[in-house]
């Protein structure tokens, strides 16, 4: 989840230029994730990527992310996650006090080569390992299936570390929640004047 300016410094009055990647092979990537996240990260076929640019405000961006589909693979089984809904199945299968999701793909919404995305993902894995947190493969995808990006779901990652990683890897949004609570979307962009209809969205700035 990202915005075209990694530092978000060009956002003026909550408005920015958003690039949404449209993965031509999204369906094949989704099929491959069933056999585990590493298959997606290293064995997925090359795909054509088109980028649509639009001027949208951060409220629309948050709504898009809140409506997206998320999931994680625990003990070989994919488990769906939804913003605003408790992750009962995942928490039962992989207990923790706090959870966080983050991807490193296509930083700043600039489509990258597979090699570049793999390097970014490797760097994120190293950061998570340095933080000493457990992790499992995870993903985010558009509600209409138009784009798909793998990432990581981590145990016990502090909000400070999560926000720092989001900025380091050019991501505008992450997921974070405490055990037993609904999944929260965490936006690392300026909070808009109105956040109507976004009960489960937290704003860092």
UniProtKB/TrEMBL annotation:
Superkingdom field: Bacteria
InterPro entries: DUF3293 (IPR021710)
Family matches, as Pfam families: DUF3293 (PF11697)
Protein name: DUF3293 domain-containing protein
Native source organism of the sequence: Cognatilysobacter bugurensis
